[in-house]
Amino acid sequence: MPRDLAASVRPDGPDRLAFWTCASVLALALWTSGAATPVYPLYATDWQLTPFVTTAIFAVYPLVLVVVLLVFGSLSDTIGRRASILLGVSASIVGVLLFALAPDVGWVLVGRAFMGLGVGLSLSPATAAMIDIAGPVNSARTGAISTASTAVGLVFATLLGGALVQYAPEPLHLTYWVLLVVEVGVLVLVWRLPRDRDALAGRWRPRWPSVPRALLGAVGAAAVCVSASYALGAVVLSLGAEIGVTLIGSDNAFVTGAVIALSMVVIAVVALASRRVPVVIAVVVAAVATTLSFTALVLAAAQQSLVLFLAFCVLSGVGYSLFFASGLGIVSRFAPEHHRAGTLSAVYLVAYLVQGATALWLGAQATRGGLESAVDVGDPAIVGLALAAMVAVVVVMRGRERRRVAA
Q1: I want to staple 121 with a disulfide (CB 3.0 to 4.6 A). Which of 3, 88, 258, 327 is the partner?
Q2: Cα-based distances in Å from 97 to 107, 118, 166
Q3: Which residues contact 151 (CB under 8 A, 6 or more apart)?
Q4: Mean pLDDT of 31-37
Q5: Would 112 be classed as within a structural domain?
Q6: Residue 169, exposed/middle/buried by CB under 10 A (0-12, 13-18, 19+)?
Q7: pLDDT, tens digit, for every residue of 118-129?
């Protein structure tokens, strides 16, 4: 842990305010990511957008974030967690402001780029700071709280956002003004974090996120886990509202948001309830849940069944939660402090690249052949990724256990 940050930790436990401030940054990152979800149908109607364009709005965010992680992935290991998070939240504020003022899709696309910049600068250092404060011994707890925090952010994006879109004035803009107020509040909390720059060595220069050779297997397994969860997220966040409208048969944004928020609630509950579940068992359950979730989604699309769509929301929430928490848990457990932010950036880089590509691919397919066609082609690909994550984690964890016993 950085020296100044370590000094702020009480002997009887971690600095709770700093820990929960960083957790709020994670929640804010996912709220920012999903803020447009309940508004996509309005964009499509008011601005005459195709499904590909609406998913492109979503995809700009992870694709810009990938570039940021490539260039600035280990920035916080040099300039400090606090400084990097401050830069990130400030960039997110610019992005949200552009959405709040947007008169057309061009402003929205630029706003998404700033959101990607902001989350790219803040997500990894906030996660790394939580691990620094709690310590690797609490990796399961940190992974669970990180996952729950992201779920809380998505609940606000879909449930509160849906209510504001449906029942408040200025449905294309008001939800972003509310988010902007929260962004500024979190910025103030981050400003009050302990300064940690002096404890970190070296001069920063642009470079790819670095992963020590000894960690390649573990980081690869973690990256596939988080990628599987983010691919699930791409389906829910980029097309979920339009799929829900089709299946529910209602244009009520709050009802659609509430249905999508069910998945996020499940993510949080499962993350907190499963923090003592071994990683190998967690990923097996996650793979099974993901497989069943897409089976339910394919049937829901074919039969226009709300019940099956609700089953998809619940099961995809289970899969997302366990995959994401397992990926972070592996990094928490094996990555040394001085490589932690860079390692997390490498994991997030792969995951966001997968998420952006998934959104664009499914959007293009939905434009050509309809939502049901997009679901049909996305099902085997995402289920295959989930099964690959399960195999990777089982192989890596068993291999490390064998080496530990042999030593």
Answers
A1: 88
A2: 10, 13, 21
A3: 30, 264, 265, 267, 268, 271, 317, 321
A4: 85
A5: yes
A6: exposed
A7: 988 888 788 878
